[in-house]
Amino acid sequence: MSTPSEKVDALFQLLEEQGSGDYIGEHISQLEHCLQAAHSATLASAPRTTVLAALLHDVGQFLPGDETAQLLYHGQNVGRVGHERLGEDWWLTSASCEYLDGLSDASKASLVLQGGPFSATERAKFEEDPLFKEKVALRRWDDAAKVVDLDVPGLRAYRDVAVEILTRGC
After folding, report:
1. Of the residues 49, 81, 120, 131, which has the fewest C-beta atoms closer than 10 A?
2. pTM of the model
3. Residue 163: exposure state from Cβ atoms within 10 A (0-12, 13-18, ≥19)
4. How far is CA 1 from its chain centroid?
5. Tens of pLDDT along 113-156?
6. 66 pLDDT higher than 90
7. How many Å apart are CA 63 and CA 146, to the nearest integer?
8. Is residue 34 a contact partner of residue 24, using CB atoms and an 8 Å limit?
9. Helix (H, G, I), strand (E, B) or coil at 36
């Protein structure tokens, strides 16, 4: 069985190897996008678990499934533990026309593929989620994390907290 340190090192190695590719039509790499989202969470003084979720929020999109299968946390893929699209896009687009208008073309296309904005009933139900505010904040950091040549801390800046969270589960 791998130790938490070994799992984090393997995950970060995969992020470095696979994250240099195009980020679905944006002008930055997938890794740069993830690092920018994590940096925004850090600047907002988000809990360290939320910072790590921001870092890993798209990991499932660009890491090969056979490689992430070995990186399980309590039987779940780390990309799913870190962040799933559980409604924040749909909530934001149903709550704010300005938000929808401000999305990039790639984000608008992704939203259509995900089913579009919530109805009023769906929006109210989503707002009952205890992590509602963190999910919406992460979504906003995700949307903003598309700045070309932004200087942010590298992946290794998050290693110790990732190991600690994987070890302690908090």
Report:
1. 120
2. 0.75
3. middle
4. 27
5. 777 777 788 888 888 988 888 888 998 898 889 899 999 999 99
6. no
7. 19
8. no
9. helix
